[in-house]
Amino acid sequence: MFTAIKFTASYSSVVTRAISMGYYVSASDSLKVLHCSTLECTASTNTVADNTSASGQWPTIIAGNDGNPLVFFEDRNKTTLRMVKCLDVSCTTSLSKILVPGGVVGRNNVVAIRSDGTPVVLYERVDVQELNLLSCANRSVSHAVVDTPFKRL
Q1: HSE of 78 in the Cβ direction (CA atoms, 13 Å)?
Q2: Sign of torsion over alpha carbons 67, 6, 86, 113
Q3: Nearest-CA neighbor of 69 among 42, 41, 49?
Q4: Contact 19, 41 (CB under 8 A)
Q5: How many other CB atoms are there within 10 angstroms of residue 56's CB atom?
Q6: Which of 59, 76, 86, 110 has the fewest Cβ atoms nearer than 10 Å?
Q7: Which residues contact 40 (CB under 8 A, 6 or more apart)?
């Protein structure tokens, strides 16, 4: 199982907010998001966020400026980098989008949100052994640019 965890608010050494986790389920080839409503996770929502063509491997999850999860992951069948934007904190509704088509991409993602709310994703392209930086031009990620790749030495 591939897993990623995020907190819905800033925290220091003590967790004071609920947690969301994105994970891959091999039996159904799908990406799921588990959102704990309490710190102890005694109440939670577990939702299939994407189940199109072996989606969900290598997930990275982060809270967008709206507090809702954004999950970046590999679509194994299409070998693409995909993103799910949850439209609510529990991810009961979401939008799925291919960000980088082709190649073997979407593994070992690192995601950050800029102060303007736009995501930046560093991801591995396994087929040519390079790291790429994807800069999203807006919060809806309707336009993104892959910057110059970093070759492995």
Answers
A1: 19
A2: positive
A3: 49
A4: yes
A5: 30
A6: 110
A7: none
Return the number of other C-beta atoms located less than 10 Å from residue 143's C-beta.
9
| Cβ partners under 8 Å of residue 37, min gap 6 | 18, 43, 44, 45
Strand partners, 21: 5, 34
For residue 11, the model assigns a pLDDT of: 36
CA-to-CA distance for 29 and 52, rounded, in angstroms? 8
**Structural tokens at position 50:** 């994407």
Q: Which two tokens stand for residue 29?
A: 């080839």
Residue 148 to residue 133: CA distance in whole angstroms? 7
User: Quick count: other Cβ atoms within 10 Å of Cβ 109?
Assistant: 23
Residue with tokens 């995601």: 111
Residue 87: per-residue pLDDT: 92
35 token code pair: 């959102």
pLDDT in tens, 8-33: 443 333 444 567 888 788 888 888 88
Contact predicate 131/125, CB 8 Å: yes
As beta bridge partners, residue 86 has 94
Give dist(CA 146, CA 66) in Å, integer. Answer: 24
